[in-house]
Design a protein that fits this description.
The protein is of the alpha/beta class. 26% of the residues lie in helices and 27% in strands. It has one domain: Nitrilase/N-carbamoyl-D-aminoacid amidohydrolase, CATH 3.60.110.10.
Length: 258
């Protein structure tokens, strides 16, 4: 299976961000899956609140445009949208559209980023449901969003439900050691679960880019650095099975002591 991660710089214009997303989908059309970053509709500003950007993630204009792009390019599209909740706080929601343009998976962010100088819970709603696993190109993909990466329990849950690739749309902030944090966590989530990790991050401004793929032995295989671009990678189930045979930590895991 071939997967792609798009790295973009956010525009203040929701429409420009949508067009950037569609352009990346078109560039990725030879892949089975393309992942777009978190905050894709735009960032909260002094002039614009998130609820003013939010839409219905099935029937809204933004979602419909992504679904159409998925269908026109015969590709599975994962994107993170602001979902209207009917209040002044929104759901931070990852959606997955099939090559037929159908919504096949949806996940509302479980861990809100209330850390460093950011407090997402002021503007987003917290949920209780675990992230889902969906199939793409014969690979079982587990969804999560950005800050979830710091919580290994999420990924153990996903791998126990069959995940072989962790799909992570993100808006990972820059700052001291923040790229190091992100890469260490991606490597750890891949290695401890003998799975692939794929992150699509925002670049420019407050964000640190470095969208990347990590393979089941924890090794980084692709990285985009600081600029806009599209990363493509091969997800090899043959290699994954070899690693899981050599390092059978999923078989050796002790459920009985938890």
């Amino acid at each position: 299976m071939k997967a792609a991660a798009a790295q973009i710089t956010l525009s203040p214009s929701k429409g420009e961000n949508l067009q950037k997303a569609i352009n990346m989908i078109e560039k990725a059309k030879d892949s089975d899956l393309v992942v777009l970053p978190e905050m894709l509709m735009g960032k909260r500003t002094d002039e614009t609140e998130l609820y003013q950007l939010a839409e219905n993630v099935e029937e809204g204009h933004f979602a419909k445009a992504l679904a159409l792009a998925a269908k026109e390019n015969n590709i599975t599209v994962c994107a993170c949208l602001w979902e209207d909740s009917g209040s002044e706080r929104v759901f931070n929601t990852a959606v997955v559209f099939s090559p037929e343009g159908k919504l096949i998976s949806k996940y509302r962010k479980l861990h809100l980023f209330d850390a460093f100088t950011v407090k997402e819970s002021d503007h987003m709603l917290r949920v209780e449901s675990l992230p889902p696993v969906f199939n793409c190109g014969g690979v079982s993909c587990g969804l999560s969003i950005c800050y979830d990466l710091r919580f290994p329990e999420i990924y153990r849950s996903l791998v126990k439900r069959g995940a072989e690739l962790f799909v992570i749309p993100a808006a990972w902030y820059g700052g001291e050691r923040k790229v190091e944090h992100m890469q260490t966590l991606l490597s750890a989530r891949a290695l401890e679960n003998t799975s692939y990790s794929l992150i699509s991050n925002v670049c420019g401004g407050d964000f640190c880019g470095n969208s990347a793929t990590f393979a089941p032995f924890g090794e980084m295989t692709d990285n985009l650095g600081d600029d806009e671009g599209l990363l493509t990678c091969d997800i090899s189930l043959k290699y994954l099975k070899q690693v899981r045979k050599t390092l059978p930590c999923l078989v050796n895991f002790r459920d009985d002591i938890l």
